[in-house]
Write a structure and sequence with these properties.
By secondary structure, this protein is α+β, with helices and mostly antiparallel strands. The chain has four helices and three strands; from the N terminus they run H-E-E-E-H-H-H. The two termini are about 35 Å apart.
Length: about 110
């Protein structure tokens, strides 16, 4: 199962409230791990995710697919106020690029 847990998305950040480092996993937003060091927080969340995965499998529950292995189309729709749309269209025209290219470069 170690290979499976390597595919999940982990992050370690400082928790001012807890005064410790917190390990997080994007695919399992309800679990976290607190430790005094960033390395300990990462180790802890990985171990916890491994236990959660084993529990899900043992109970025949669905296992979240890692974000890293999900297919992405490269397309998504975003709604913006008409004024923002107009401003972006003007910027794109003045830059000589498509609106899509302008917004893509801003997101990157």
């Amino acid at each position: 199962m170690a290979k499976t847990i390597d595919r999940y998305t982990y992050r370690v950040t400082w928790s001012e409230q807890d005064q410790e480092h917190v390990g997080l996993c994007a695919e399992f937003p309800s679990v976290s791990w607190l430790e005094s060091t960033p390395e300990g927080a990462l180790q802890g969340i990985r171990t916890l995710v491994n236990k959660v995965l084993a529990d899900l499998k043992r109970n025949n529950e669905p296992v979240p697919e890692p974000l890293s292995t999900r297919p992405y189309s490269g397309k998504f729709m975003v709604r913006v106020p008409p004024e923002v749309h107009r401003m972006l269209a003007i910027q794109a025209a003045e830059s000589g690029v498509s609106l899509n290219r302008l917004i893509s470069s801003k997101l990157a």
